[in-house]
Structure formats: C-alpha cells, structure tokens
Fold this protein.
Amino acid sequence: MVRCKTLPTCKKQPNIFYPQQEDDIRVCVRKRPLNDNEILINERDIADIRNNYTLKIDKPRTRANTRNCIERHSFTFNEVFDEDDNGNEVFIKTALPLIKFIFNGGKATCFVYGQSGSGKTFTMFDQKYGLCAFAAQNIFTSLKEEKNSHLEVYVAFYEIYNKQLHDLLDNRKKIVELKERQAKNDINLLEFIKLGNTNRSTGSTGAILQIILKHKNEFHGKISFVDLAGNDRELSDMKSRMEINQSLLTLNECIRALDQNKKRIPFRNSKLTQVLEDSFVENSRICIIATISPNESNIRHTFNTLRYACRVKE
Ligand SMILES: Nc1ncnc2c1ncn2[C@@H]1O[C@H](COP(=O)(O)OP(=O)(O)OP(=O)(O)O)[C@@H](O)[C@H]1O
C-alpha cells in the first residue's frame, strides 16, 4: 500500500500558549490497546498518536484504476491519550482540574463518549484505574485540608431509560425525587459506584454519577460523571435507539451553543441535557473524553466518534 494523500479532517488547533486545563470546554481522546481477539486475528492498529494533541488515522482505500492506497486523516484535540497512558495520567489531565474547580464552588461535567467496547466504562468507572476511583481518593484527600474540612460529600447515581430516571443505588427504582447519599470516605464512595454499576441496564441513554460537595446541607460544588450509551449500539428497541441518538445530538448542540456563547441553548430537546442543565450554565466546566478502538474493522465507528468530538469545538 502507498499513502495517497493527507486529509485534514479537524481544523481546530490547540493553542499552546493558553493554559488548556483551564478551558471551560475541553475535548480529549483516549485510544485503548488492541484486545486479545484483535491481536489473534492480526488486526492492524490504524490509530497513530503523534503527540499529546494529535492523532492520525490510516484509512485503506481501493480506487478504480489505481493501486490500493492509504488516506491519512489528522485530528487535533485538547489532549490525546495513547494505549500506554494509564488511568492516573488520564485523570490528571481531565478530571483533576474539574475537581479543583468544584472545591472552588463550580459545577463540572465529565463525559465519556464512543463506540461499545472502546473503553468508556473502563475509563470512567473501573474500580482501580477509572477516573472515579482517582476522583474519590483526591476528593477525600482534599477534605483533609483545613480550608475544605467543613465540606461533606454526597452521591447520586442514576440512569436514563426511555426518558425516565432510574436510581442505580436503589434497585433501578423510578425516581420521583432524586435521593443523595452521604459518602463518609473514599472506600464508601467507591462502594456506591460499584453498586450503581452492577445495577446498570443495556439500552439506557447514559449513566450519571454525581458527587456533590455541601456545607450544612448548602450546595458548594458538584461534578457529574456521565457514561454515555455506545454510539454504535444496535438495539432491537427502536424507541431506545431514537432516544439515544436524539440525546447525543442534543448534547453536541448544547455544548457547541455554550462554547459559542449563544443565548438559547436547546436543553429541552432531550432528557439527558434537561437533567444536566444546571451543571452547564454559570460557573461550569465540561470535559468530553472520546474513546476509540484502534483496530481497522472498527474504523467507521472510530471516524464517527472523532467527527462527533471535533464538531463540539468547531
Ligand atoms: N485503556 C484501556 N486499557 C486496557 N484495557 C481497556 C482500556 N479500555 C478498555 N479496556 C478493556 O476493553 C474492554 C471494553 O471496555 P469497556 O467495557 O469500558 O467498553 P465500553 O465502551 O464501556 O463498552 P459498552 O458501551 O459496551 O459498555 C474491557 O474489557 C476493558 O477492560
């Protein structure tokens, strides 16, 4: 194969002079390693991470009357994580700035978005290497500092299924009024996360874990970790599929509108954005982590994920 041309598909360039971790909206990408099955069948790794901001995807192409060639597509984001980057490195560059922000009274949201099996849940909720595990430790370490010692930690964990909220900490009961539980320490918080994850269903629009800081029942700050439904999910239930598509589309539109300081943000167009509305407005920060599979046979989904992520900050 020969390379036939280079196609820049995302023009947004990182501004290296700007303190990127302070951006209100950040878009990052994480590539997972090839798994055992993919290695067994000699799948090619088509995602080449060039540096902390750029990845290139080699797209094989067969053209009439020409030799087979490779199109190289280049994408640039606030951060790009390789398969060798561990959970702590991802945490430091994505969720850690958000946690510092909520201790200062802000509202933050961290999303994982991508194809099924690309590492969304691993990135967010793995009990050892996930962002939430590092977040739990970091939050309770920060509470030991005198300036934070008055704060308490509360948690809520729910999913959206057919436009209805279900409490993942209470056997998926339909939520009438959202219940928050106090977490006494990081281990206790991780137990809540583990319990919620075991109660998750397939076909939901997304699972939302909220960690809330309070002082004497008064709100101080909040971070929401949102594990979105796989963007490739084939569901027999048409209603769920439509709802997931609508939510992903609206989420993208809302974040773009916020980025462009538009007056009208279309929160009402999906249940997901409706429930997250208060986290999006005023004193808020957002980080999206798009997860991708590196193997050639998932290339279509990988392009979909990267284009979605690019559109957020176009
Ligand atoms: N960065 C990574 N390093 C090592 N293993 C990973 C990584 N990302 C994902 N994996 C592994 O890949 C598999 C699929 O990951 P995961 O379940 O997180 O995917 P997902 O995107 O949440 O899929 P679904 O949408 O179907 O829930 C898991 O076995 C996970 O441990």
The CA atoms of residues 161 and 204 lie 5 Å apart. Residues 32-33, 35, 114, 116-122, 230, 291 surround adenosine-5'-triphosphate (CB under 6 Å). Residues 22-45+83-312 form a domain with the Kinesin fold (CATH 3.40.850.10).
